[in-house]
Amino acid sequence: MANPGYDGMWLPDDQDPRMQDLQPTRGERACLVGYLEHYRQTLALKCDGLTAEQLATKAVPPSNISLLGLVRHMARVEQSWFRRVIEARMDLPRLFAGEDEDAGFDFPSVDDDLVRASHALWQSEIAYARDVLDRTDLDTVVDVHGEPTEVRDIIVHMVEEYARHCGHADLVRECIDGRAGQ
């Protein structure tokens, strides 16, 4: 199989949206939010240009991880941490909580409508999370399973969550069409 891409990179640097707004870090908030945004964009890039069937491909058996499942799962993660935990809205039902949904990884037969709805949900949860972060100090302490936790720790956890799943996305995408890197 030919090595698709640009010298092993996903995109040329001058076309990579994650590289367009690089500035020296100006403090903790800019650093944390910058990494979070980078990984959000990375997952979006890994999904770019694929059909509904390709997005639903579970490329690393026996795992049920697919790119579409990752998008749905990360919508759930964004909703849980920003709405339920930081805003203390634990009465809000978690997304994809049903036994047959497996935290977003399982879904009915895939079509373009499901893909659009899943991406729209994920982007909506990201927009909401950005708003929560804009109005919340990193020193704010929230309850996480009975433990006092600063919002900064939740942001670090979100960066870790996205980084881990972007690694999964790399493998799934490479199995689909050979694209890897970046």
From TrEMBL:
Region of interest: Disordered: 1-20
Domain of life from the UniProt record: Bacteria
Entry protein name: Putative damage-inducible protein DinB
